[in-house]
Amino acid sequence: WIIRIIGGGLQKALGTSRTESMSATANIFVGQTEAPLVVRPFIATMTQSELFAIMVGGLASIAGSVLAGYAQMGVPIAYLVAASFMAAPGGLLMAKLMHPETEAAINEMDQLPDDPDKPANVLDAAASGAASGMHLALNVGAMLIAFVGLIAMVNGIIGGVTGWFGLEGITLELILGYIFMPLAFLIGVPWNEALVAGSFIGQKIVVNEFVAYLNFAPYLLDASAEGFKVVAETGAMMSDRTKAIISFALCGFANLSSIAILLGGLGAMAPSRRHDLAKLGIRAVIAGSLANLMSATLAGLFLAI
């Protein structure tokens, strides 16, 4: 009922359909594959714009179940919670800007189904939550091992190739930093910190947010803590405002590997829409990334006041 209330508020405020508003609200609390379950019976018959909005909503947000993991890395929980709530309207905004609605959509409350898989009681909810948590923890662990190893392999290849030309210290992170450095500056990061910020934004989009947060974590430590890092360009601690901007910018599933997750999750719920999901995948990642960057920009703006 909380999702229905907030979803109704989003519908009234933004003029979106009830199905996409409900799914966007569910993304505040659960992940990109679980949130569409609240509107599962309608996925097969959704308009292109609604389907795109559901995809963007999932990519612009993170699962509530991983907030504790990010907080354990040192990311302020207040930033994570704020980013999760901002992702719902932000994702809908970017989705409608990139793919406006031109067809009839579902808008009435009585057209939406009840959740057929809701827990029977507290014990059922606890058991289901424990199983989901274990599954998530194993997935996250496997993903981190795989992607950290992949980055190490890529860095080894890059280092070997650039070494032939006498270039030292060239890594994937450094390359991504230079590519996304102007973008980091545009969202409010000072130029002397934009290289490292751009690197994290690039890692989040090209790899995933887990790896980006993992590499960002040493900059959040106290100066006396083991593993603490300073910004190489300044030789000083990263500014609090930059830490906040990066924390918001990384808070979303919008990365290239998430396209496969969406195809697997939403495609299983509505096999007839797989073609549409594949066609909209890259655009959804772009829209989700823009929603995250918009939240980061607003956070930096408010902190500067």
Low-confidence stretches: none
The total count of strands amounts to 0
End-to-end C-alpha gap: 36 Å
Helix percentage: 55-70%
Please give the radius of gyration in angstroms.
Answer: 20 Å
Helix/strand class: mainly alpha
Biggest sheet character: none
Beta fraction of the residues? under 5%
Shape call: globular
| Helix and strand element order | HHHHHHHHHHHH
Count of spatially separate domains = 1
The total count of helices amounts to: 12
Assembly status: single chain
- Mean pLDDT over the full residue set: 85
Give structural notes.
- The protein has one domain (2-114, 137-304).
- It is 66% helix and 0% strand.
- The protein is built from twelve helices and no strands.
- The radius of gyration is 20 Å and the shape is globular.
- The two termini are 36 Å apart.
